[in-house]
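quick one
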Amino acid sequence: MEHQVSFSGHLIFIGFGTIARAILPLLLSQEHIPVKRITVIAPIIDHNIWFKERGIRFVRQALTEHSFVQVLDRVVRQDDFIVNLSVEVSSLALITYAFDRGALYLDTCVEPWAGGYDDPRLELSRRTNYALRHDVLALRKKLGKGPTAVVAHGANPGLITHLLKAGLVDLALQLNHPLPQNRDGVDWARLCMETGIKVIHFAERDTQVSHRIKQDDEFVNTWSVEGFISEGSQPAELGWGSHERTWPASARRHRFGARNAIYLERPSASVRVKTWTPLGGPCLGLMITHHEIASTADLLTVKKGQSLVYRPTVHYAYHPCNDALLSIHELIGRGWQTQRQERILNSEIESGGGDALGVLLMGHALNAYWFGSILSVDEARALVPFNNATSLQVAAGVLAGVVWAVEHPARGIVEPEQMDYERVLEVARPYLGTLVGQRTDWTPSGNHHEASGEGAVEDWQFEHFTRL
Ligand code: NAD
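structure w/ nicotinamide-adenine-dinucleotide:
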């Protein structure tokens, strides 16, 4: 008989960086799931007294393609929960391992082994998140039902999919538009189509600053420098909307999978897009690639037989903290030769800044509507130690994903799109600051529409967002 997974209370964290430190205090203070033991596996363990006093077990070890089974076998038992918060450790290898051992699993992205993001032997199409997701979907098909493995569940990817659904419901309410249903519940694709949405940005602005400004030859960020550089060096990607009329320069189609997304032959950190968030209004973001561009493009596609009827254009538009923008500028300027120093901003961040992470739904009767979390660094610090605004939004996503997996332990591989958005947001909500829904008359073309005017399809073409 198949083993019924039931959480043992032992969590194994792989990696001990910004996000692991952010989630541990959160996990130890929550009451949704029982936590009996925590083990952390990472090559560098620079823990402070806070972690020591809580009885967390630390294993100083790097996981590699050759050693990971041996290392994990000493720690992992059936019904344990593996949370991958490392860089350079393959998600597919860990998912397969967790599945074989009867353990639960969560990841905040889909990570390849070291060197996988910029392996020169791989053609560009294979270095995209679309391709990494394609491999995860193939593994899901192969493994079938089993212990739950939640993939791509931090803030974005992760919470952003749940914010997207909540934002769509909010917008439908304001438009007095009924929620179309399918056998899974709300038909999100049809809702987008019926409300006339043409473009969706996962629009994020980080306004956190330190009094210590960035030095030359230094990369500064509010979360992983390595993680940011990895995704910034992958090709730019977007779900390609059915309203689009102009094929972007350097854009390519994939020759495998659902083909709902395309990629540009340019590193994603080098593509700038106009966007809007309530934190400062219009701004210029980077079109960093993420898992959610392809998973939400899937969720929001309407087809008739094999023919595409509708899909919005979807992509990330990220204005990182000012010093991270300068760091990217410097990195690209020196031909991607990484800076010698790196600094993650945390306790040195000045009061007042924060992170706005949400969805910008565009092209409907209210013109554009942003829905998401605005969290200040002061709120984040008051809520959970060792956090800035960005890390707490991610940690909230990890916590909610872990809780959901424990509550649904036998679902096999799951993306955020298959989870219950209301339950996930309920768990994450206390750590998200203010949830804001705000309309704006901003457009990328500069044409302003009255509240009642839907605006022409022309105004929402991808080319307007990239034309500077
Ligand atoms: P970080 O760079 O601060 O920490 C990475 C950790 O991985 C470090 O502790 C490092 O020692 C460890 N590590 C490196 N190689 C390892 C190996 N071979 N075996 C075991 N551990 C190893 O990163 P972070 O900011 O904490 O982010 C962690 C992960 O979460 C990254 O993959 C990042 O891309 C992802 N992330 C996702 C989101 C999201 O919202 N979905 C947001 C932020 C970060």
